[in-house]
Design brief:
- The two termini are about 20 Å apart.
- The radius of gyration is 24 Å and the shape is flat.
- By secondary structure, it is α/β, with parallel strands linked by helices.
- The strands form three sheets. Strands 1, 2, 3, 4, 5, 6 and 7 form a seven-stranded mixed β-sheet that branches.
- It is built from 14 helices and 14 strands.
- It folds into four domains: about 180 residues, Rossmann fold, CATH 3.40.50.300; about 70 residues, Helicase, Ruva Protein, domain 3; about 60 residues, no CATH class; about 80 residues, Roll (Ubiquitin-like (UB roll)).
- The chain binds guanosine-5'-triphosphate (GTP).
- The site of guanosine-5'-triphosphate has 18 residues, from helix 1 and helix 10.
- Keywords: GTP-binding, Nucleotide-binding.
- InterPro entries: Beta-grasp_dom_sf, G_OBG, GTP-bd, P-loop_NTPase, YGR210-like_G4.
- This is OBG-type G domain-containing protein.
- GO terms for molecular function: ATP hydrolysis activity; GTP binding.
Length: about 450
């Protein structure tokens, strides 16, 4: 059965990993329980924000709503896991907190080997970079530190870890490769399987290296090139440039942007602490704030807008009012949001994750049987699963239903789709599976 995607947060101590994790996992929206049965202590459930199927105007029974009213299906959207607010759905996704990476980690410094081992199952990384320049490479307080250096050393630690693991047995690997007349893909897949590498990942790695040289003739420099290509393929990385609320952040961000010109789409600016702060105030009833949103509304704002009881919000004292004003000026107005949701969305984009909505009843999108009167009013789009780009209808079926025999699959309009058809956003992504003989 295809594995659920796993995204790991990495970074030096004090870069803001825990704060980022909190801001991604704690949501003020009402959420259901999570779909994963066992969770390791260093794993957490984050919520990926996606446009929900319930808001697609082209769907049957989502006729144009009355002015000011949400589409009919949106009103009845009740996810089993996560939440759906105004058509934005929070879909649970597993996150892994990889603590303690410092320069020298691959040689065991700061328990680095143990933490690197945690990375094996990650499909993508979020590298939390402290762009305030107030913590050094080991996370100790300082001033004027250049955080662009962290991007370089952290990647090089991962490369050195994989390289070291491979080089300790390279002689034997080569001898076996020759003896069994294996292809480079077969041999490397065997060596990289411990990192969850599929054949497709190894093929993409070798495409990147683009060499005709037989594996047994690779010198050390060539093996290192292959490992570099493997790390880039297996661990696509989002750089979460955190602490943008700090006055020194701008110049450091500018330097990193110049350095990363060729891969600018992996940079996301964020202020994790601002997100945690805003969500806490919203929970305590001081402000109106949609997690990850652009706007904050206080009691004063709502009264000024004509809501007589100020939306039931509490009064702010001067200290809180000033903090919110600062946060509006330094983060929300300048960057459009605190950025944390974009960090996760960007990682999901890099992985090409596709949200698929399995429904029992393709006519109503509910989970009940057709024909019952109650079904037309009942909850819709109860489930949503995330699958990788290139997944087929059959892959989704096995993920959702396991080994049960499949009779046929329908999508919107009762149109039949084949097991081999690919799923994509807006295409074969609302599916009804019929179990049994066709
Ligand atoms: N100014 C500012 N400070 C932040 C931000 N995010 C985190 N911090 C602060 O940075 C410090 C370290 O944050 P943590 O989240 O504990 O960092 P960590 O990377 O988990 O640290 P370790 O647990 O040591 O690995 C704390 O004092 C946070 O309050 C941010 O967006 N802006």
């Amino acid at each position: 059965m295809p594995r659920d995607p796993l995204i790991a947060l990495v970074g030096k101590p004090s870069s803001g990993k825990s704060t980022t994790l909190n801001s991604l996992t704690d949501t003020t929206a009402k959420v259901g329980n999570f779909p994963f049965t066992t969770i390791d202590p260093n794993r957490a459930i984050g919520y990926l924000h996606i446009p929900c199927a319930c808001s697609r105007p082209a769907l049957p029974s989502n006729q144009p709503p009355a002015p000011g009213e949400p589409p009919p299906l949106q009103k009845r959207c009740r996810p089993n896991h996560g939440a759906c607010m105004s058509g934005t759905r929070s879909v649970p996704i597993e996150l892994l907190d990889v603590a303690g990476l410092v320069p020298g980690a691959h040689q065991g410094k700061g328990l680095g080997n143990k933490f690197l081992d945690d990375l094996r199952h990650a499909d993508a990384l979020i590298h939390v970079v402290d762009v305030s320049g107030t913590t050094d490479a080991e996370g100790k307080a300082t001033r004027g530190y250049d955080p662009s250096v962290d991007i370089v050393w952290l990647r090089s630690e991962i490369v050195s870890w994989v390289l070291r693991n491979l080089m300790t047995k390279w002689g034997g690997v080569k001898r076996r490769h020759i003896a069994v007349k294996a292809s480079a893909v077969e041999t490397l897949q065997g060596q990289f399987s411990g990192y969850g590498a599929t054949k497709a990942i190894v093929i993409r790695t070798l495409d990147r290296v683009n060499t005709k040289l037989p594996l047994q003739e690779w010198d050390d420099a060539m093996v290192e090139r292959v490992v570099n290509a493997f790390v880039d393929t297996k661990f696509p990385t989002v750089l979460a440039l955190n602490k943008i609320d700090h006055p020194d952040a701008d110049k450091n961000v500018a330097k990193i942007a110049r350095m990363e010109k060729a891969a600018a789409d992996r940079l996301v600016l964020c202020s994790a602490i601002s997100e945690v702060f805003l969500r806490r105030l919203a929970k305590q009833g001081y402000i109106r704030y949609q997690p990850g949103g652009e706007f904050v509304e206080t009691r004063e704002d709502l009264v000024a807008a004509g809501e007589r009881d100020g939306g039931g919000l509490k009064e702010l004292d001067d200290k809180l009012r000033t903090r919110i004003e600062n946060l509006r000026d330094l983060v929300l107005f300048r960057f459009g949001s605190t950025g944390v949701n974009q960090v996760l969305s960007r990682a999901a984009e890099m992985l090409g994750l596709v949200p698929v909505f399995p429904v029992r009843n393709i006519a109503t999108f509910g989970s009940g049987e057709a024909g019952t009167g109650a079904e037309s009013r009942a909850a819709v789009f109860r489930d949503c699963v995330l699958v990788r780009k290139g997944s087929t209808v059959g892959d989704v079926y096995r993920k959702v239903m396991g080994d049960a025999p499949l009779a046929f699959v329908e999508t919107v309009g009762g149109v039949r789709v084949g097991e081999e058809d690919e799923v994509g956003v807006g295409r074969n992504d609302i599916l009804s599976f019929k179990v049994g003989r066709a």
